[in-house]
Amino acid sequence: MTRESTTPRAGHKALPLAAWPEADRSAWEVAVRPSGFLDPGGAAAIWRAASRRSALGVYGRWLAWLAAEGVDLAAEQPWERMTEERLRRYLDFLAPGRSPVTVASYIGVLWMVVRALFPDKGWAWLRLVHFHLRSQARPLRDKAVRLVSAQDGLQLGLDLIQAASARLEDPRPESSDARARVGAARDYRDGLIIALLALRPLRVKNLLGIEIGGHLRMSARRAALSFAGTETKTRKPIDHSWPPILLPHLERYLAAVRPILLTSTAPRNPVWSGQPTGAHLWVAQGGTALSEGGLRKALLRHTTQQFGRFINAHAFRMNVASTIARAAPGRIDMAQALLGHAKPTTTEAHYVLSDARLAVRSHHDLIASIRKSARRRRKVDRPRGL
User: Among 193, 183, 167, which Cα is nearest to 290's?
Assistant: First the structure.
């Protein structure tokens, strides 16, 4: 997959809401108007904060691109600016340096926004464009190549913990070097994260947001993870026990490994110094909270080395669902509960990855079982002496 360029191109830095034309800004204010007594509110009133930020960014980029193309935003009605010919040129602008999946996602959000802002203008054609782009991108985004069993993910995490522990306990002078100890502590943290993802596949936001004493509560013999509904994507609370197999490793991380990372030094970006650690469970070298970029870098390094391909945090969720589906086909509810999905159909449609060889094998086993049962019945029903 082609990685999206991080360098903003001319015409693609989002136009802030305050700089939108009056008609667009007014439509947005109506769309996000909260509901009240006998008032359903605007079409975007129920959107979560993250969805609103995404919508503002995508629509703001569309407006910025139009302005860069010489379109007088104030001279045209918002829905009149959206033409098939312009959208075709916009797709040509988006394509370089971006994957087909990213481009399809842009158009999907754009469709969502204009439908909410101008619901009576008829956006069926834009919906078809989005579906067409998504169907074209889907074969290029082969999720199956990221399929690794939950057992393999757990083993990788435990192996990293064991190797890092050996380095931390090594009495040789070269192992007691501060740099070597920080590297071992970092690998220990990464191993614990990978093992946790293999058993409790949290979404990245919740994983990195775990706070000691808040989301993570510990007693003498157990630990638990809990998130309020306001902190989850589905708005449903999450309550998981911390995997018992990982409890001793968690205790050591808190007592001995995390302090090494907290007191270590790291080069600072003069523009961005990192998020304060506070009570965050996962910390980075230099004493800041682990960021999404830091997590991605860690997973990229370890999973590529072990499996020959990058297994990101989201792929761990698919891997867990597929592992459960293979081991217990009738218990998709287990995967649904672990992933925190509101509906089992979401788990089945988007997270359970099929393996043709396993499907064929299961089919053959079923046919063999039916034929064996039929032979038994014929033998029982056959009259004696014949």
Answer: 193
CATH numbers and ranges of domains, the chain: 17-141 (1.10.150), 146-266+275-349 (1.10.443.10)
| 332 neighbors 347 (Cβ within 8 angstroms) | yes
**Angle at Cα 245 formed by Cα 176 and Cα 189, nearest 5°?**
35
Task: Express each pLDDT in 223-269 by its tens digit.
Answer: 999 999 889 887 888 888 999 999 999 999 999 999 999 998 765 55
This model's pTM is above 0.70: no
CB-based burial, 174-196: b 16+ in 10 Å, e otherwise:
eeeeeebbbbbbbbbbbbbbbbb
Q: What are phi and psi of 223, to 5 degrees?
A: -140, 155
pLDDT tier at 16 (50, 70, 90 boundaries)?
Answer: very high
Give the span between the Cα atoms of 371 and 20, in whole angstroms. Answer: 70
